[in-house]
Amino acid sequence: MAKMNKKALGLLSTAHFVTDLNQGALPALLPFFKEALHLSYTMAGTILLSANLTSSIIQPIFGHLSDRRPIGWFLPLAPIIACLGISVSGFIPNYFLLLASIILTGIGVAIFHPEGFKTAYFFTGEKKATGMSFFAVGGNLGIALGPIWALLLVTSLGLHGTLGMFIPGILIAVILFFNLPEITSPVQSAHREAKKGEKKPLTKGQKWTFFLLITIATIRAWIQFGLATYIPFYYINYLKGNPLYAGKLVSTFLISGAVGTLIGAPLADRWGHKQFLNITLLLSFPFFLLFYSSSGFLSFILIGIAGMVLISSFALTTVMAQATLPQHLGIASGMMVGFSMSAGGIGVTVLGAIADTWGVPMAMKTILILPLIAFGLSLILKYPLKLKGEQ
């Protein structure tokens, strides 16, 4: 089997970083949109839901299209679209136009992920989880640095500072354009070979395993987006704290998750994918509980450890889904990344309703119990599956 192609993974990871920078920025911008447009918590949550549902509805469709015919030019186009939507959001005085601009960002994210994860698959080499972690960590870092980058722009330049989000999109699009033939060549070759063979229908075992993986990934996304959204609300609106302090907490959580993705993937390849998933889901619960009860510097340490443990399985679950559906890599990638991450936005809207009714602290407490639910589901997961034709 071919060795890992670090150059190709590096380029794809950088594009992943730029695309997901916008996803990370949005939750941190919500308190500013809320104040500027006089929104309720539920309306603010709906902004995030709009971006996430766009990805949820469209991303699997792009995954299906990718399985039928690889569309390599999506890779440079997607970051531009994602950056454009968030960059104009600070100039919009109307709630519904704001929703439209955020939906545009969601479309850009939806276009990138299925093609990106599918393309990265062909450069990962033998250690799939380790290789995919190099690609996935770009997105993790984008989501992690998005809040602090957005907050620096808007606290320095006002809400119009969101325009600065557009610059990375243009830069990475140009770089990818000139490297596109090298990046897309293995995908095109694999697609030609796949067309010669016969696609077998999915078994009940494949469908059930895939469903459980999506559910677990969705709950993890609910936790991730929930904390990224409600740490700022908790510290800025409820505790009347410094916005930059809240942004640093969110970035600590998500940057630690990116580190966890890189550290965890080789361990998952060594210990076994399912066992590693079980351990991370169970271990994250006590650290989230301790974080909620802590303050000061200890809060940064605990949220960092919790983020590292929880998000370390991000690339892993995508690899598990690709292994479960080897003939449908685009769909597996689109559903695991797009649908699960986006469906997590529905949970954030539910948290908004909880916050409006019982207060922000209750929304935070709701997030804390979710790792245990995901752990329970991981216990009944059958993986790896023995597919037909395998010895």
Can you describe this structure in just a few lines?
By secondary structure, this protein is mainly α. It has helices spanning 6-37, 41-68, 74-88, 95-121, 128-157, 166-196, 204-238, 243-271, 273-292, 297-311, 314-324, 329-358, 360-368, 370-379. It has one domain (8-379): MFS general substrate transporter like domains (Growth Hormone, Chain: A, Up-down Bundle).
What does the model show?
The mean pLDDT is 86. This protein is an all-alpha fold. It has helices at residues 6-37, 41-68, 74-88, 95-121, 128-157, 166-196, 204-238, 243-271, 273-292, 297-311, 314-324, 329-358, 360-368, 370-379. The radius of gyration is 20 Å and the shape is globular. The chain is built from 14 helices and no strands. It has a single domain, classed as Up-down Bundle (Growth Hormone, Chain: A).
Strand and helix map with partners:
Elements: H1 6-37, H2 41-68, H3 74-88, H4 95-121, H5 128-157, H6 166-196, H7 204-238, H8 243-271, H9 273-292, H10 297-311, H11 314-324, H12 329-358, H13 360-368, H14 370-379
Helix content: over 70%
Structural class: mainly alpha
Corresponding CATH superfamily: MFS general substrate transporter like domains
* CATH architectural category: Up-down Bundle
The whole-angstrom Rg is 20 Å
**Mass-distribution shape:** globular
Measured between the Cα atoms of the first and last residue, the distance is 18 Å
CATH class: Mainly Alpha
Percent strand equals: under 5%
Work out the count of structural domains.
Answer: 1
Give me the strand/helix succession: HHHHHHHHHHHHHH
**Number of extended strands:** 0
State the low-pLDDT regions, or none.
none
CATH topology, by name, is: Growth Hormone, Chain: A
What's the helix count? Answer: 14
- Overall pLDDT confidence: 86
Q: What about the largest sheet?
A: none
